[in-house]
Amino acid sequence: MNRRRNVRLSIAVVALASLGVIVAGCTATPITPSPTVTKSPVATAEPTVDAAPALVPNGTADENLPFFAQIVQRVWDGGGSDAVSGRAYIDALSAAGFDKASMQVTQDMTTVGNPAESIQFSVLLGEDCLVGQVGPATGEAVSVVLPVLGTGTCLLGETRLIDW
């Protein structure tokens, strides 16, 4: 009988243990609340828009170079016969506010009547010069600031009279 009782007792212990496991599996585990993240508005800098280059009256050549270069590029980009026409650049620079009396330009044609491979034009501003160069030989519009020459002018060699 003892043996029977031990078997029953063993079955009862196993049954209770199984029941304990089952019941433990059915209980809800406590939910730990996760922290709520709230994003506060972040101040962002307003995008800055660079102002378009403009003529700086009585400014230096360095101050006026961006404006000069913009005008030169616009005429160059227009292409056609004006792309290598000194008059087109002088007229555009004058219309933009540069003093025509302070300008120089090289010839559009060679001495034998061929179109120039490049032309140069300039504006004298104080002790410096705004100098532009365009043409098939350069392949692009070039604008730089150079010191005035010992002659008080900006361009070497023979220049064209600006009489228009």
From TrEMBL:
Keywords: Signal. Residues 1-24 form the signal peptide. It comes from the Bacteria. Residues 81-158 form the DUF6993 domain. This is DUF6993 domain-containing protein. It comes from Microbacterium halimionae.
